[in-house]
């Protein structure tokens, strides 16, 4: 039986997997876990005659409460979520996606971040904020994975990036 078939679904409306399921999958732990729930998951499809390929993708959330330790120094009296933490949140959403859709390839492994390309920060993320994290797997071969990611606060795109990781 696959991991996807055994993951416990949430009973909360609009949530596919709760924090307890996400945090079991995610190798990063509190206080460095930046994914709270999974809203939706697309496992992807290979291209067939008459139908285009669909890349695996995930939509997740992170609830920035304002109590996170990194906000105490970034910046005192005017907290802003650091860009590197935004990139990490996108990468963690991508990790959850990969752990589910590439289960056989990544079992017993953890991600090692390789690089970030084409990163753009479009608006500051000020707590309290409910962030929507989107990640799409665009390439997978020989333990190397490439993704695109976006973070939204409400309808506002606050950051986006392309990034890569190896599963080691």
Give the helices and strands, then pairings:
Elements: H1 3-6, H2 19-25, E1 37-42, E2 57-64, H3 83-101, H4 103-106, E3 111-121, E4 129-141, E5 144-153, E6 156-167
Antiparallel strand pairs: 1-2, 2-4, 3-6, 4-5, 5-6
Protein architecture, described:
This protein has 168 residues and is α+β, with helices and mostly antiparallel strands. It has one domain: Hotdog Thioesterase (Thiol Ester Dehydrase, Chain A). The chain has a six-stranded antiparallel beta sheet, covered by helices on one side. It is globular.
Q: In summary, what is this structure?
A:
The protein is an alpha+beta fold and 168 residues long.
- Rg, rounded, reads 16 Å
Widest beta sheet: strand line-up: 1-2-4-5-6-3
Averaged pLDDT: 95
Helix content: 10-25%
Which key terms come to mind for this protein?
single chain, alpha+beta, 168 residues, 4 helices, 36% strand, Thiol Ester Dehydrase, Chain A, six-stranded antiparallel sheet, 6 strands
